[in-house]
UniProtKB/TrEMBL annotation:
Provenance organism: Forsythia ovata
Superkingdom field: Eukaryota
Main location: cytoplasm
Compartments (UniProt record): Cytoplasm
Pfam families, per database record: tRNA-synt_1b
Record protein name field: Tryptophan--tRNA ligase, cytoplasmic
Length: 399
């Protein structure tokens, strides 16, 4: 084996990013990920263009590089500029009852895209996937999908432009026809190459990727897009979902569809530091939308990894290491005010502001955000879930 390939293997061991596992020895190297996956960085000119086309300031996640990579996003903007519409597609694998802040990131951003571009949205709940990967029963997966739908609806999506569906309920008809067409285009060797399946994986896993690929094609939703086979699709998601859509983009032209475009986000780091993403299986690695103000304060004070120095004296002298400081990273996601964020970074980095002050400000912001979400979720009834999930035309979806 030559040295290069052994170095590469070493790197792959140290950094694993796929739809089921995100881990690294140190920080996730996003540059390497972009190179490996073959997507592009979102450059400032694209962000300026979004602001110009939508007539509103770009979302904080765009300005701060939370959504940082894309595939063909400029083509979506070209088409939009020509007066052509598109639709949004995102999703959630319902593996836990409560969502954490990392789960909310793609939905907050998707809501902004829906409002800014005034386009329809389909949201897939992959209850079938979680049943296969997490060893949940079919019934439990379906129950979690409905619970998660309430959190998603609480993000404020427009019911006249939004269709939420669970795979167990919706897959069939035109959707299933697309799944079969996709499946015929992807060899077993190809799927093993993309997803790393082994001989020990059951065949349900091997056959799942077409289920997540199918919503990228408008004909999977005849109640919405009949006769609109030329409609483009934009998928906002975290970058660990990229392998599914590499596969989808590969088969799209062979089936006569546009390749879906993607806009992809960084992972929301765990409280303990940036070696992966928040984990629903470790309650102390994450802030949940069900956490009380007291829980949030306690988790931030106790678990949020600090870049501050070990004593006040050293901190005043050397300042904080902003590269590793989790409270500053979280403020980068959720503190809207650019000037205030810059002030905190400057003062804290110079040692004039202490860790406790930064954590206090973060606690205020997250408590208010979680409280707002909790109120919105409490107002979501079962009837509302049924209404969002009803298979129905959306006559005003492009208004």
């Amino acid at each position: 084996m030559d040295k290069n390939s052994s170095d590469e293997n070493q790197e792959q061991k140290e950094q694993v990013v796929n739809p089921w596992e995100v881990s690294a020895k140190g920080k996730i190297d996003y540059e390497k990920l972009i190179e490996k996956f073959g997507c592009q960085r979102l450059d400032p000119s694209i962000i300026d263009r979004v602001a110009r086309l939508t007539g509103r300031p770009p979302h904080v996640f765009l300005r701060r590089g939370v959504f940082f990579a894309h595939r063909d996003f400029h083509e979506i903007l070209d088409a939009y500029e020509r007066g052509e519409k598109f639709y949004l597609y995102t999703g959630r694998g319902p593996s836990s009852e409560a969502l954490h802040l990392g789960h909310l990131v793609p939905f907050m951003f998707t809501k902004y895209l829906q409002d800014a571009f005034k386009v329809p949205l389909v949201i897939q709940l992959t209850d079938d996937e979680k049943c296969m990967w997490k060893n949940l029963t079919v019934e439990e997966s379906q129950r979690l999908a409905r619970e998660n739908a309430k959190d998603i609806i609480a993000c404020g999506f427009d019911i006249s432009k939004t269709f939420i569906f669970s795979d167990f309920d919706y897959v069939g008809g035109s959707f299933y026809k697309n799944m079969v067409k996709i499946a015929k285009c992807v060899t077993y060797n190809k799927v093993v190459g993309i997803f790393g399946f082994t001989g020990e994986d059951h065949i349900g896993k091997v056959s799942f990727p077409p289920v997540q690929a199918a919503p990228s094609f408008p004909s999977s939703f005849p109640h919405l897009f009949t006769g609109k086979d030329n409609l483009r699709c934009l998928i906002p998601c975290a970058i660990d979902q990229d392998p599914y859509f590499r596969m989808t983009r590969d088969v799209a032209p062979r089936l006569g569809y546009h390749k879906p475009a993607l806009i992809e986000s960084l992972f929301f780091p765990a409280l303990q530091g940036e070696t992966g993403k928040m984990s629903a299986s470790d309650p102390n690695s994450a802030i949940y939308v069900t956490d009380s103000g007291k829980d949030i304060k306690n988790k931030i004070n106790k678990y949020a990894f600090s870049g501050g120095q070990d004593s006040v004296e050293n901190h005043r002298k050397y300042g904080a290491n902003l590269e590793v400081d989790i409270p500053v990273k979280y403020l980068g996601f959720f503190l809207e005010d650019d000037a205030e964020l810059e002030h905190i970074r400057t003062e804290y980095g110079a040692g004039r502001m202490l860790t406790g002050e930064v954590k206090k400000r973060l606690t205020e912001i997250l408590t208010e955000m979680v409280e707002r979400h909790r109120r919105a979720r409490a107002a979501v009834t079962d009837e509302m879930v049924d209404a969002f999930m009803a298979v129905r035309p959306l006559p005003n979806m492009f208004d």
